[in-house]
Amino acid sequence: MRKRELVHYHALLDRVSRYMRRREDLPADALEAYEELGVSPAAVYRSKRDHEVAVTTLTERLADAARQADAVEEHDDQQASAHGD
Question: Considering the entire predicted model, what is its pTM?
Answer without folding.
Answer: 0.82
